[in-house]
Amino acid sequence: MQDLKPFRKKLEKLKSELTHRVTAIDKDIRHEGMSADWAEQASERENDEVLESLGNASSENLIRIKNALKRIESGEYFTCSLCGETIPAARMELLPFTTHCINCAEDLEH
Ligand SMILES: [Zn+2]
Question: How far is the CA of 20 from the centre of ligand 1 (A)?
Answer without folding.
Answer: 32
